[in-house]
Structures are given as C-alpha cells and as structure tokens.
Design goal:
The complex is a heterodimer. By secondary structure, chain A is mainly alpha-helical. Chain A has two domains: 82 residues, Up-down Bundle (Four Helix Bundle (Hemerythrin (Met), subunit A)); 50 residues. Chain A is 76% helix and 0% strand. Chain A has six helices and no strands. Chain A is globular. The termini of chain A are far apart. The N and C termini of chain B lie far apart (56 Å). Chain B is mostly helical. Chain B contains three helices and no strands. In chain B, 75% of the residues lie in helices and 0% in strands. In chain B, α1 runs antiparallel to α2 and α2 packs antiparallel against α3. Chain B is elongated. The chains are: A mainly alpha, B mainly alpha. At the A-B interface, α1, α2, α3, α4 and α5 of A face α1, α2 and α3 of B.
Chain lengths: 172, 103
C-alpha cells in the first residue's frame, strides 16, 4: 500500500463520515460545517485524480460560494442554539432501509458490470486544453452549452432579485 | 489494494445514498438543500471517475462536471432566495408548514 493509496482512503473516509454527520446532526449550523468538510474532501479526491482545475472550481464555487450562502441563510432563518425537532423513528427506519437497499442494489450492479477502457492517447486536463475545448464551435466543442449556462446564470440572478423584491413592494 | 474506478464508484454511491437519506428524513428546507448538494457532488465524482479511468482521450465528463457545478450554484441561490422569502411570510422553513403553497 503506497502513500497515494493511503491518502485516497483517508479522503474517502473523511467524505463519508462527515456526510453522515451532516445528515444526522440536529444542530443545523454544525450540519453546514460538516457539509463543508465533505466538499473539501471531494475536492481533495479531485486533486488525487489529478483534475486540478475541477478541484479548484469545487473549492471556489462550493466551499467559497454555496456553503457561505447556506450559512448566511441559516443566520437569517434560525434562532441560534436551537436544535432541529426530533424526527419520527419510523420515518428514520424506513428511510434507512430504503437507502440501504438502494445502496446494496447499486453496488451489486456495479460489481457485476465490466467496464471497458479505451486504448487511445489520454488528454491531460490542463487549463489550456479545457479552455480550447470550452470555446470550440466545431463538433465536440462546448461553446453552445457555455452560452446556455451564461443565460441560465443571468436568469437565476434576475429571478433572485425578483423574488427578493416582491414582498417589499407588496408591504408598502 | 490499489484504488481504482470501483473504489470511487463505491464512494460516490455512498455519498448519493447518504444524501437521499438526508432528503427523506429532514424536514427543514435548508438541510434538504444540503442533501441535494451532496447528491450533486456524488454525480460529479462519478463523471470525473468515468472520464479519468474509461475515456481519458476525451474531456466530456469534465465538462459535464463543470456545467453541473454552475447549475448547482444557480439552483442554490434561487432556492435560498425562495427559502428566505418563505421564512418572511411563514416565520418557519419547515416543509410541513409550507403546505398552503398548494392552494
């Protein structure tokens, strides 16, 4: 077992343990912090796979953006120190059973399936290659989805403003 | 044992079903949103693993991951705007109290 393998197992354990804590803790602020550690662990796995650009994007967007947004919304909507109400035991048991059955079924399917690798030359996912492919307009290029995503982000921006404004104008 | 595709698929399946468990048991909108983030992350991990181990000659998985991250960011922003608006009108972000949205 080499050092690289040990790092992978450490990161994977970190991800799973903190994800479990995040969905089971009754303090919502702690859930957000545990989610933060899970996301950092996934970014570490991207680094381990040598997809450095995706790892950087993961850290910038998820850790720097979404988790901060979630923490702010917790501050705005939650009383500090208040715990989430206890869930009904039967709901927990049925959810755990369904999840475990789904997990077992998926793992059986994955281990029975044989994956075929290609023999062609690998492209290293450097920022240069990603940028060229992202803006390519020939077949296999991603210029059109890139534009669609920019429209989506603009729509989300305007949508957020509209949602945030509505109650203010009604109350006046 | 050398970690490979199967190990990463195991990890992403585990994360996916942990997210589903959170989605089924939680009744607070923000924690449900966190579970959705976990599910989306497991999907990203799958795309990257398939790209790395099965089709290293293409970068399609990588681009799908990038676009999913962008969509997840937009989705989280809109969801949190809705949640805060719901909190303003109902003083609670529990899904049981949001039932009158139906009518």
């Amino acid at each position: 077992m080499t050092g690289s393998d040990i790092i992978f197992y450490l990161l994977a354990t970190l991800c799973v343990v903190f994800a479990l804590l995040s969905v089971t803790t009754r303090q919502i602020f702690r859930a957000a912090i545990y989610l933060l550690f899970t996301l950092i662990g996934i970014a570490g796995i991207y680094f381990w796979l040598q997809y450095e650009f995706i790892a950087a994007v993961q850290i910038v967007v998820y850790v720097g953006g979404i988790v901060v947004l979630i923490i702010f919304s917790i501050f705005l909507t939650q009383q500090t120190g208040e715990q989430l109400p206890k869930q009904k035991l039967d709901r927990k048991i049925f959810a755990a059973l369904a999840v475990f059955a789904g997990f077992a079924l998926t793992m059986v399917q994955i281990y029975q399936h044989t994956f075929f690798e290609t023999d062609e030359m690998a492209i290293t996912p450097t920022v240069e290659n990603i940028g060229k492919k992202m803006l390519a307009v020939d077949s296999g290029g991603y210029a059109l989805p890139f534009e669609v995503i920019s429209i989506l982000l603009l729509a989300a921006l305007i949508g957020c403003i509209v949602i945030a404004l509505r109650t203010k104008t009604e109350s006046k | 044992m050398q970690p490979g595709l199967y190990h990463i698929l195991f990890l992403s399946t585990a994360l996916f079903f942990i997210g589903v468990y959170g989605f089924l048991t939680r009744r607070n909108l923000i924690t449900m949103l966190m579970s959705i983030e976990l599910i989306l992350n497991s999907v990203n991990l799958n795309f990257i693993a398939f790209n790395k181990y099965l089709w290293p000659n293409q970068m399609d998985g990588l681009f799908f991951t990038l676009f999913i991250i962008a969509i997840a960011a937009a989705e989280a922003a809109v969801a949190i705007a809705i949640i805060i608006n719901l909190y303003r009108s109902h003083n609670s972000i529990d899904v049981e109290n949001a039932e009158d949205l139906k009518y």
